[in-house]
Design brief:
2 domains; single chain; Rossmann fold; Quinone Oxidoreductase, Chain A, domain 1; globular; about 350 residues; alpha/beta
Length: about 350
């Protein structure tokens, strides 16, 4: 079967590999759509970050080359021995987390904080940039009737956003700022609407993405290339309750801190390629809190329920659909060159 595999920085190849078969406790899925994630782009431009190269990942037992793709959905075509509650023909979204079941974090129900945390399509396994994928049955979630396959490919990134808002200090009626209106940032805007934020300020240099943020519910958008974002936010609010950092750009972190009120919170959602610096006094003297968010836990069913209510709409968020053969030129390279894209979906080959 065809699969897009990571071999190195700027070296993703669409090549033929054997079609996998499920073992006990696994299901085989005919992939429908797979989204290109910001984490995928980081691996393409500056990896390896999550991808194991010299040694196998302790849970996937794989190392590069890796079949990429972790934002995906499809239809079950085969069920391994011992799997219950799932059947051939079920439409499913994939929760692509590798985590040890015996770690302290997992025993506490916080499996996304496992020390050996990995992701299908990044840390190994049969990723979604292929015609078929085999995954443990515990990784799949049945999709509600009426939810399109394109929506299914957005469940994973929407889960990232909803989890970040859930673990933040935001409360109904609070004010928030979102720095970065890429796919996750825009999904955070929608998740903040779900949470009842009264005002949502979005800082983003791309005009197209600023317009999209307004469409999805932002109160005000700010172009940081022409305005002092912190000054605009503080003049309007005297500081927001929570600022979400969704850029991974070092210079943005201090801006997030300065945009919050006393006792405010900075929620860092990005995956970083390097260090970021800030003056600790900006946190200490105002008793601000800096908190991180990684992936998600126990949230996929809630995401899909919200999708049935109209949130996280593929119609609004997907800006391009491509074939697997074009994943590099029309996918990764397009995201590098055209900052106006929100979400690019890759159609699985037959």
């Amino acid at each position: 079967m065809k699969a897009a595999r990571w071999h190195g920085v700027k070296d993703i190849r669409v090549e033929d590999i054997p079609e996998p078969s499920p073992s006990a406790g696994e299901v085989k899925v005919k992939v429908a759509w797979t989204g290109i994630c910001g984490s995928d782009l980081h691996e393409y431009l500056a990896g390896p970050i999550f991808i194991p190269v010299d040694e196998e990942h302790p849970l996937s037992h794989d190392k590069a080359p890796i079949t990429m793709g972790h934002e995906y959905c499809g239809e079950i075509t085969e069920v391994g021995e011992g799997v219950t509650g799932l059947a051939v023909g079920d439409r499913v979204a994939i929760e692509p987390i590798f985590a040890s079941e015996t770690s302290q974090a997992s025993l506490e129900g916080k499996y996304n904080l496992d020390e050996q945390l990995g992701f299908v399509g990044l840390s190994g396994g049969h990723g979604g940039f292929a015609s078929h994928s085999v995954i443990p049955a515990k990784m799949v979630h049945k999709m509600p009737e009426g939810l399109s396959m394109e929506q299914g490919a957005l469940v994973e990134p929407a889960a990232v956003a909803l989890h970040a808002v859930r673990i933040s200090a935001i409360r109904a009626g609070d004010k928030a700022a979102v720095f970065g209106a890429g796919p996750i940032g825009l999904l955070v805007v929608e998740a903040l609407r779900v949470a009842g934020a009264s005002q949502i300020y979005v800082v983003e240099p791309s005009e197209v993405r600023r317009e999209k943020a307004l469409e999805l519910g932002a109160t005000k958008v700010i172009d940081p290339m022409s305005e002092d974002a912190v000054a605009v936010i503080r003049e309007a609010t005297d500081g927001v309750h929570v600022a979400f950092e969704v850029t991974g750009v070092p210079a943005v972190l201090p801006q997030c801190i300065d945009s919050t009120r006393h006792d405010g919170q900075i929620l860092v959602v990005s995956i970083w390629e390097g260090d970021a610096a800030f003056n600790p006094n900006t946190v200490v003297l105002k008793e601000r809190q800096i908190k991180g968010s990684i992936a998600y836990r126990h949230v996929f069913p809630a995401v899909m329920e919200l999708m049935t209510q109209g949130y996280f709409s593929a119609e609004k968020l997907v800006t391009k659909r491509i074939e697997l053969d074009d994943v590099v030129s029309e996918g990764f390279e397009a995201l590098v060159a055209e900052k106006s894209h929100v979400k690019i979906l890759v159609k699985a080959p037959n």
